[in-house]
Amino acid sequence: MPKEDSIVLSSRIRLARNMENKPFVNNASLAMQKDLRRNIVQAIKQTDNYSVMEMDSISQIERLMLVEQHIISRELANNVESGAVCMQMDKNLYIMVNEEDHIRLQVIRDDMDFDKALPLANEADAAIGKLLKYAKDEDFGYITCCPTNLGTGMRASVMLHLPALVITNNIQKIVQSVSKLGITIRGFYGEGSEAEADIFQVSNSVTLGVNQADIIRSVRNICKQIIGMELQARESLLKPGSIYITDRVYRAYGLLSNARAMSINEFMKLFSDFKLGIGMDLIKVNNVKAINNLIVDAQPAVIMRTAGVMLKDDEVDVKRAELVRRIIKENIQQ
Amino acid sequence: MLCQECKKNEATVLLNTNINGVTSTKYLCQQCAQNHDLGSFMTAGDLLAGMFSQMGASPLFHMQEKTCPECGYTLSQFKRNSLLGCDKCYTHFREELKSMIKRIHGTVFNKPDTDNASKTDDLSKLKAQLQEAIAKEDYERAAQLRDLIKDMEKKVKKGENK
């Protein structure tokens, strides 16, 4: 397995756009928000084959599932009355309507190949921009509801699994030093969230005065450096004579492949150690992507949606343990 | 603005302290802030809140409430939640917003995307903008445009040589 693959979980390009001469979502009446949604969704559907989910026509579990799958943000899921998402699943292209901005278009990948994601995002954006008049300013570029997104309106982000930098207490220093370079490191669910399972989101914080190519270059460079540091930290953990990390990895493996009930917090913690073991070649698996998918598939709303019924917490814990045991059994190399 | 402790780095943290009832406010860089035992995860909200209290010290904010005539949004609302009311708020609150935007992004000028559009087209647009900026005596803008044009001309040349 190429070493980078054991660290990069996913990446995303996000473009924020707003319509000219319309109030932003936070300043629009409910009737106006619904009006905006109708117009925007209609335009998006004209450009290509999108499936649409309006937040008020799906259940709370479905909304949560979309958040857990990182298809929509918590903020959009909370806008039950006027939010919507337009999706092209085959392209991993998702457009949130009436989030903080009128339009938040995103392309998600399970690697960090921005050269493939960006043209897709730009193509969809340009098609929609022909039908809707985007708000733009000569100096400030694309106009966004919050000034932190002005200019390109673009955020390029990468989810990285950095357990060795956490164990060796280096992550704080990195978080602080990249902030000077126009880069932010956040938790698993973006702004204001915790770094669950030692997973961090690295993204550009500056969007104005730089163009798309500059943003991609800087996020990619910083990520490569962080990946290099993580790999170095992993090597330092494997010092001869020290069984600390091997013991930790095999304990996680033992519990994940045998437990009969597991909470999401316990799972995320153990999963980080187990995945570290895979990255360090202590544990060999056939399909690392199938293992990575567990991070989403073991989340509570996804489990309930798969089961097709509402479940109590302890029932979810049993289902989660079953799923984790099965996936590990199917993919582990004996 | 520069850090008030080391006076070298750009200040990104607002530190409010209260010692025996005496409150004080300092703008610090990340490094100096570390010495004060602060959490390391800064959100955009934290950063903006710091900037707003700085804006509060400026005379603009002591004048009567400014309202966007297009959408009715006020500067105080913006101060509270860091969000604006409509695209035209950026026109009506332009001067008030500029210094803050500069602190967030390091500039108040958008950089055109050369990857999507025809480079030569962009170049002539930029040259026209440069003339306009010089005519308006907006030298900060002119200097930036000049650099952009130089940069783009190099790229166009490279493309021709390929």
Lay out the secondary structure.
The complex is a heterodimer of chains A (334) and B (162).
Chain A: E1 8-17, H1 30-47, E2 51-54, H2 60-68, H3 74-78, E3 84-88, E4 93-97, E5 103-109, H4 114-131, E6 136-137, E7 141-142, E8 154-161, H5 163-167, H6 171-178, E9 183-186, E10 199-204, H7 212-237, H8 244-258, H9 264-279, H10 288-297, H11 300-307, H12 313-331
Antiparallel strand pairs in A: 1-5, 1-8, 2-3, 3-4, 4-5, 6-7, 8-10, 9-10
Chain B: E1 13-19, E2 22-28, H1 30-34, H2 44-56, H3 75-81, H4 89-92, H5 94-105, H6 119-135, H7 139-161
Helix pairs in contact in B: 2-5, 6-7
What number is the mean pLDDT of chain B? 74
Series of secondary-structure elements of chain B, N-terminal to C-terminal: EEHHHHHHH
Biggest sheet strand line-up of chain A: 2-3-4-5-1-8-10-9
Secondary structure category of chain B: mainly alpha
Unreliable runs of chain B, pLDDT <50, ≥5 residues? Answer: 38-43, 56-63
Strand order of the largest sheet of chain B: 1-2
Which word captures the global form of chain B? flat
Instruction: Please give the largest β-sheet of chain B.
Output: 2 strands, antiparallel
Average residue-wise pLDDT of chain A? 93
What percentage of residues of chain B falls in helices of 4 or more residues? 40-55%
**Number of helical runs of chain B?**
7
Strand fraction of chain A:
15-25%
What string gives the helices and strands of chain A in order? EHEHHEEEHEEEHHEEHHHHHH
List low-confidence stretches of chain A: none
The total of beta strands of chain A comes to 10
| Greatest interface by residues involved | A-B, 47 and 45 residues
